[in-house]
Design goal:
InterPro entries: Cupredoxin (IPR008972), MauL (IPR034242). This is Methylamine utilization protein. Keywords: Signal. This protein is mostly beta strands. It folds into two domains: 92 residues; 82 residues, Sandwich (Immunoglobulin-like), CATH 2.60.40.420. Helix content is 0%, strand content 52%. The chain contains no helices and 18 strands. The strands form five sheets. It has a five-stranded mixed sheet, with no helix packed on it. A four-stranded antiparallel sheet has the order 15-2-1-18, with no helix packed on it. It is globular, with a radius of gyration of 18 Å. The termini are far apart.
């Protein structure tokens, strides 16, 4: 089943010459869609402040399913389960491996290259998650309400949209952020079920 994401952009000027950008992402049925990444890349890029982020292993799944971080961010991978996990990625944007462990690894993982990082677990094949590593500090992931709100300086930007289920690369759109304007765009995806804890009796390996 293909769904069409409809994005509604509303802009209003706030203090310090910032444009507040509210983006609503819906599916073809008009229902809010979560886990879509929105990035606004300035025509005059500056250095974004890298912060720490976290992807948990909880209830035999990765939480959150989709994360968005700026390049240079260090990400923690705490294991909240009693079951040991073996986290890895073979993605060109970041190859790493955290062998069987519980609790918190000794050091976070540095994501220093822009791109999409697909996460997996060597013990539980169904466990999947994604980290979108952007070049701009102006990026966010839609929640269950399909909304993101960003405060950015008024000006020209490249709007980038990404979702794990998209059917093809989405071409960036040039937008000029100012007050009182509305923009719409769309992204075709094939709807899938997010990874979830399997039925009882599977995935109980604890390691040693």
């Amino acid at each position: 089943m293909k769904l069409l994401l409809v994005l509604l952009f509303t802009f209003g000027l706030s203090t310090a010459c910032l444009a507040e950008v509210t983006i609503q992402v819906n599916d073809q049925a008009g229902q809010p869609l979560e886990d879509a990444v929105v990035e606004l890349i300035s025509s005059q890029p500056g250095s974004g402040k890298a912060v720490h982020a976290e992807v948990r292993q909880q209830d035999l799944t990765f939480v959150p399913f989709v994360s968005a971080v700026v390049r240079g961010t260090k990400v923690e991978f705490p294991n909240m389960d009693k079951t040991r996990h073996h986290v890895y990625s073979f993605s060109p944007a970041k190859e790493f491996e955290l062998k069987l462990y519980v609790g918190k690894p000794e050091a976070p993982v540095l994501f220093d290259k822009a791109g999409i990082v697909a996460l997996g677990c060597n013990i539980h094949d169904y466990m999947q998650a994604y980290i979108y590593v952007g070049t701009s500090p102006h990026l966010a992931v839609t929640g269950k309400n399909g909304l993101v709100t960003l405060a950015v300086p008024a000006g020209e930007y490249q709007l980038v949209l990404w979702h794990p289920w998209q059917n093809a690369d989405w071409q960036p759109q040039k937008v000029t952020l100012s007050a009182g304007q509305i923009y719409q765009s769309s992204l075709a995806i094939t709807h899938q079920q997010k990874p979830q804890k399997p039925k009882k009796g599977f995935g109980a390996y604890t390691g040693s």
